[in-house]
Request: fold
Amino acid sequence: MKPNLLSALVFTLTSIYVEGAIFHVPEDHRTIQDAIDAAAPGDEIIVSEGSYRERIRLKPRIRLRSAGNDRKGKIGLARAERTVIDGGGILPAGREPVPGVSMAQGSIIDGFTVTNVGRYDDARWSENHATRGANQPHEHIGGFGVPGIGADGLSGRIINNIVHHNGHTGIALRGNNPEKEQPSLVEKNICYRNMGGGIGIMTHARARILGNACFENFYAGIGHNNASPLVQGNECSGNIRAGIGISEGASPTVQRNKCHHNRRAGIGIRTGEATKPIVEDNDCYENGMAGIGTDEGSAPVIRANRCLRNEMAGIGARHDAKPVIEHNEVRGNKLAGIGFEACENGIAIVRDNIVCENGMVAIGVQTGWKVQIINNTLSRPDGMPPVIMVFKNAEAIIDGNTIAGPGVAGVRLGGTAEIRNNIIHGRKLRPIGPPQFGVWALPGSHLKMSGNSFKTWRH
Reply:
């Protein structure tokens, strides 16, 4: 390599990694904000361990980092646990209620605990936990509020922080000009016991939400309101509402997350056809309601998820939702595997799923739904419920499925159905007792049937 090219390369690499000055707190400046005020774009501020009772406003392209390496502590990085930004609780009258940390364009915050921004109310948290948030006002769930860390109309990096016991959302992102904004990065943070969501993304904010842990928050662990980030590899548990909540025209890509032991759904989707996320390859288990729920006309693609041992349906739809439900594994849920609650005009496609060993039917289609049930493997190991139930004033096309169970019917029909090309297996012949039909068409139902294979049914 020629000397001038080598010199240019060394200069380029050095300019990437050593761009500006380094300030130390409290050695060079007593407070974090004093250091920020003295810094210029490209500078780095390193903060020694301790508690800093202040709310801070970053400047563009400033990196704020706690001192130390990335050794693990009890729940997060040890340096983040030891370096605390204390927001001072409820501010005195007349002071502007600003976030604990206000991000700036291109700024970075790395490795802090941010707490006591506003008032955490343990009694209110406990009351809402007991009621699964049933009395929470709908309109407040997606608000920006006064977050622990806030990025308002800009992009930045929020990494390795612990954000807890704040009076509103832990980390909040709000968009301003999404066509020009670069995505923010929110990665490897821990957000818990905040009086809003753990992480909230709203109003067209662009972001990548990667590898965070959000638990025991007042609303959702990760909430979306009219924003469509990439949400990948997060763990959301024990939140009062959903593990991940998606609403108001939000259409994020939600992949490879773990949502478990939340008081409501693992992943909850609602509010209109413009809300059309891709929900893919997630593990939703042991939640207080559905593993994944879609509501209020929303139109998600629910694909290749594992919905296991939830207190209600594995996947539930209601209020005129329009989901595509495909390639999921749905097992061991206490109610239906996939359930469609009565509505006025719901439409769904259910294809290529494995739905087994659930407490009630594998698929239940109630009044008002038109559902295509195609190429699924559906079974029940024991008990009397049918494998598929289509209620009065519901319509279904049931095509190419494997349907197996010992109950009163493979398919029990009260509405309208076309049943074709299925394998319908009764598992074990019962010589006496309740009915045992391959297809049980009730009075008033409408049935077309062709190309099916039946075995081990008494009727």
